[in-house]
Design a protein that fits this description.
Distance between the termini: 19 Å
Structural class: alpha/beta
Bound molecules: adenosine-5'-triphosphate, magnesium ion, fe (iii) ion
Strand content: 15-25%
Number of strands: 10
Helix content: 40-55%
CATH topology of the largest domain: Nucleotidyltransferase, domain 5
Largest sheet: 5 strands, mixed
Radius of gyration: 20 Å
Length: 344
């Protein structure tokens, strides 16, 4: 069965073809980062309009890379939520119109389920059950995953998501948008002893997170140095290092607690922050020491993409072929908790 995936929840337009027999056939992605950069963040109306412009050329590219005609698609999976309402509407409308035109069934996919299952696209995929740390731009959640659609929330952030903390702290250092990768690169040159920033909720004895105070700590350090414009490059790197060390310490410690609490030996990392080199190094070292196995998505599938949506759709269809329907009226779900997804 060949599933077309359509992702448009935020600022990436992603299309992909996944075959349940042969795996991922092709995918194409357009990131709007350059367009939103001058505003310092995603402008929802611009995002929606750009999805409209990009979707069809990306679809054509995806089909031609796979050497396929649109008629060969068996079902279409699209991101139904959560995300920006206008952006979600574009992907949903495109998927449903395509389904109607081709007479193919469609299904709405949960964006976070896409992220969560993305490590299963890798060459050495984890088996169920596992603990998943979902660290993206909008979410930081620890989950027990017993199978597709079987998600138990273990803990989440009370305020900012980890990716949001990366982006906001990077902005405070004048590193542009989205600053996650930039602050991480800069941190490599920083002195770990220069700035010891707080480790929020490290000893909270639960699996909750809080990152807004960490961003405030970065702001205080920057202000104490006379503002970002007056902080020299080395000191920026030192602050970046203090920030990254703090966030990586907290994420690693909470993953270890979640593994201990569940008794599981497999940890899966998903979402954009899962691309972070320092986080991977810390978790790999912990895995070696504590004898558990850690799995990541391929780097290109950490941030938003169509492949994870095609894959999540295919997994749902494997379990329940009725999950996709020839019903082309759609509604998007900009807010949609993942643990409401239980029923297949
Ligand atoms: P959500 O999936 O919660 O709706 P999103 O789709 O915006 O949010 P993703 O695409 O999964 O989130 O990830 C984007 C986030 O990942 C951004 O905050 C970005 O800064 C962060 N990120 C990407 N690469 C890195 C990196 N190497 N280090 C740290 N953060 C990173
Ligand atoms: Mg994005
Ligand atoms: Fe995402």
């Amino acid at each position: 069965m060949i599933v077309l995936g359509v992702e448009s929840s935020c600022d990436e337009t992603g299309l992909a073809l996944y075959d349940t027999e042969r795996g991922l056939l092709s995918h194409a992605l357009h990131s709007q980062v350059a367009m939103h950069e001058e505003y310092g963040g995603v402008v929802p109306e611009l995002a929606s309009r750009d999805h409209i412009r990009r979707a069809i050329p990306l679809l054509e590219q995806t089909l031609s890379k796979a050497g396929m005609a649109a008629q060969e698609i068996d079902a279409i999976a699209y991101t139904q939520g959560p995300g920006l309402a206008g952006a979600l509407l574009v992907g949903s409308a495109i998927a449903c119109s395509l389904g109607m035109a081709l007479d193919k069934p469609v299904l709405g996919v949960h964006h976070l389920e896409g992220h969560l299952l993305s490590p299963l696209l890798a060459s050495d995929p984890p088996e169920f059950p596992f603990v998943a740390l979902l660290v993206s731009g909008g979410h930081t959640q620890l989950m027990r995953v017993d199978g597709v659609g079987q998600y138990e929330m273990l803990g989440e952030t009370l305020d900012d998501a980890a990716g949001e903390a990366f982006d906001k702290s990077a902005k405070l250092l004048g590193l542009g948008y989205p600053g996650g990768p930039a602050i991480s690169r800069l941190a490599e040159f920083g002195d770990p002893a220069a700035y010891k920033l707080p480790r929020p909720m490290l000893h909270s004895k639960d699996l909750m997170f809080s990152f807004s105070g960490l961003k405030t700590a970065v702001l205080t350090v920057v202000n104490n140095n006379g503002g970002a414009a007056n902080v020299c490059e080395q000191d920026k790197a030192n602050i970046a290092r203090g920030f990254v060390d703090s966030i990586v310490d907290v994420l690693t410690a909470k993953c270890l607690s979640a593994l201990k609490q569940t008794g599981l030996k497999r940890l899966v990392i998903a979402g954009g922050v899962g691309a972070n080199a320092q986080l991977r190094a810390s978790l790999n070292a912990a895995a070696k020491k504590k004898h558990f196995k850690v799995f990541y998505p391929e780097l290109e599938f950490c941030t938003d993409n169509g492949a994870m949506i095609a894959f999540a759709g295919a997994m749902r269809l494997k379990i329940n072929p009725q999950a996709a329907q020839r019903e082309y009226g759609f509604n998007v779900r900009p807010r949609w908790p993942l643990d409401e997804l239980r029923v297949i």
